[in-house]
Design goal:
The chain is mainly beta. It is 7% helix and 37% strand.
Length: 83
Amino acid sequence: MTDENNLEGVIRMGSRVTYRDDETGASREIVLVYPHEANIELNRVSVLTPVGAALIGLSPGQRIDFETPHKRTRGLTVLAVSE
């Protein structure tokens, strides 16, 4: 029986996420935060940014395409999630 309330490994607020940009192959580690806590120099990304909103709810191994503010489509693959 699976526990539908178990969010271990699922990206949510406060998650530390490592993802790969599928176009460039570059990896990046960020922490997903509320807008008032965002600080790009500290890799703290707001959930309201396109990448932050795209990552919510994903787990390692999953990928998503999303539209940037410049109307480009980017693909990301989640590599790791921790708290």
